Request: fold
Amino acid sequence: MPAWSLILFWMSAFAATHMVMSSVTFRPGLVARLGQKPYLGVYSLISFATFVPAVRIYLKNIHTGPLLWTLGDVPGVHTLALLLAGASFAFVVASPTQPSPASLTAGARTSAYGLTRITRHPMFLPMGLWGLAHMAVNGFASDVAFFGGLFAVGLLGCMHQDARKRVTEKGRLDGFFAETSLLPFGAIVTGRGRLVLSELPWLALTAGVVIATILYNLHGWMFS
Reply:
C-alpha cells in the first residue's frame, strides 16, 4: 500500500473519531459515564493514537507519490502561502489568550472580542489554513494527503463544533454566532461585525510571528 494512502487512512480516522466523540449523539453519554476530565483524556488519547501514525508515515515519505500539481511555481503563490502559514501560526499561538466560546473547552466570554471578531475559531481554523498553505506549494500525493487532511479536519471540525454548540448551548451563543463568522473576516465584510485593533493580543501575535519565522529558517535543517 503506498504511503500516501496510509496517510489518508490515518487522517480520515483522526477526523472521524474527532467528530464522532464530540457529537451531540455520543458526547453526553460518554461524559456521563466517564466524567468531564476522563472524557477529555480519552478523547485526547484517541486523537493522538490516530494522528501520530499519520505524522510518522508522512515524515518518512515527504514529497512522495504522484505529483498532482506544481502551484508553488506560479508567481506569487509561494509568497501568499508563506504569509498564510505565518499568520495562521501566530493565531494558534495567540488563541489561548482569548479562548472562543465556540471551542471545545470554551472560555467565559460569550461575545465577540479580539481574535473571535476575525474568526470564531481562532485556534482550529488557522490549523486548517496552515495545512492549506502547505498543500498549495507541496503537490506530491503524500503532501496532499497529510496537509489536505489537516485542512479538511480544521474546516469540517469547526463546522461540526458550530452545529454542536447551537444545540447544546440552546440559544446562549446566538448573539456570538450573529456577530462572528467561521471564515476569517467574513462577519466584518458582511457588516455583521467589526474589527477592533485595540482588542487584539499583539504581544502573543508577535511572539507567534517570531516563532514562525525561526521555524521557517530552520525548515530546511529540520526536514532535510
